[in-house]
Amino acid sequence: MEKKQDKKQLEEIKKQAYQELSTALALAKDPVLIGDFLECLLTPTELQDVTTRWALVREIDDGITQREISKNLGLSLCKITRGSRELKKDDSPFKKMIDVYLAGQAKK
Predict the structure, then answer these.
(1) Helix, strand, coil % (nearest 5) of the chain?
(2) Which of 1, 45, 84, 90 has the maximal Cβ count within 10 Å?
(3) How does DSSP assign 45-82, residue by residue?
């Protein structure tokens, strides 16, 4: 019984940490601070994975073909297809974040 409770507590701690992290990132208005934070938080491999995923969905959103993306980023077509599928979902968080980014760039 104790293990089940420990697992439940751990899941709650993780859920709260995820919410806090999301909120902190949303509140931070400094891209340099966020970049520095991500470099501290993630290993170099994790950071590379995250940035590659962002590049992937940006290229899909720009209308670049999956084969070109595979060549440009060195990704398998399966990973690209997954990214494409996520981007096409109704209320896609990927699409929303791209739109937020592009709107911010347009203001500059």
Answers:
(1) 80, 0, 20
(2) 84
(3) HHHHHHHHHHHHHHHHHTT--HHHHHHHHT--HHHHHH
**Largest CA-CA distance found in the chain, in angstroms, rounded:** 57
In this prediction, residues 5-9 reach a mean pLDDT of: 87
Which residue in this structure is represented by tokens 């290229």?
59
Cβ atoms of residues 80 and 39 within 8 Å: no
What pTM, to 2 d.p., does this model score?
Answer: 0.85
Contact 34, 25 (CB under 8 A): yes
The contacts of residue 61 (CB under 8 Å, 6+ apart) are: 87, 95, 98
